[in-house]
Amino acid sequence: MSEVVTLSALTTFLLGVGNGAAGEIGKNLSL
Fold first, then answer.
1. CA distance to 9, 22, 23, 29, per residue, from 12 (Å)
2. Residue 29, phi then psi, degrees to nearest 5
């Protein structure tokens, strides 16, 4: 069960990083 929790946390973390990076790129393109 701990593997599922770890995988879920990792996926959430990677999605957050991906969204943050996309937001930064979007702000740079809009300037």
1. 5, 15, 16, 26
2. -70, -30
